[in-house]
Amino acid sequence: MEKTYTDRIKERIGESVDGREDYFDLTHEESINLIKEKLKNNFSVNLWTFEWPNEQIAEVDKQLYKENIVHCWDEVFDSFVCFNTEEDMVGFYWKLRKEATDEQLKDLKEHNYNTPVIKWFKDNES
């Protein structure tokens, strides 16, 4: 029996840990409203883009901007990562960058992933 999209995404993101709440089968509008609500009490919220075509990612990106939600799309996470402030977003990726091993950074670069861990720090490399 073929797996549903919800089954495939659950497999991709893994079990809910550390109190993470997962929601499935929401419209984009419902997802954006939930993000706004969840950001009131959370540092960040992910909107998974697993198996989305580029056109769908671009459309939701426009909607997030329109709603003034601080966000970036990260290919490694396969999601929009949404934050309360730009400072929170930059701090999150700065911390990931500092904690990454040279091997992890090399792998990200070799695969040319669209992730702020690499893209935002290219100018700071020696």
At a glance:
This protein has 126 residues and is mainly α.
Structure characterization notes:
The protein has 126 residues and is mainly alpha-helical. It has one domain (23-124). The chain has 6 helices and 3 strands, in the order H-H-E-H-E-E-H-H-H. It has helices at residues 5-13, 28-38, 54-66, 86-99, 102-111, 116-119, and strands at residues 44-48, 70-74, 79-83. It has a 3-stranded antiparallel β-sheet. A hairpin with a 4-residue loop joins strand 2 and strand 3. It is globular, with a radius of gyration of 15 Å. The mean pLDDT is 90.
Strand order of the largest sheet: 1-3-2
Biggest beta sheet summary: 3 strands, antiparallel
Computed structural class: mainly alpha
Tally of helical segments: 6
Mean pLDDT: 90
- How far the N terminus sits from the C terminus, by CA atoms, comes to 51 Å
From the alpha carbons, calculate the radius of gyration and give it in angstroms: 15 Å
Please indicate the percent range of residues in DSSP E strands (runs of 2 or more): 5-15%
Q: List SSEs in N-to-C order.
A: HHEHEEHHH
Could you say how many structural domains there are in total? 1
Q: Specify the overall morphology.
A: globular
- The percent range for helix content is 40-55%
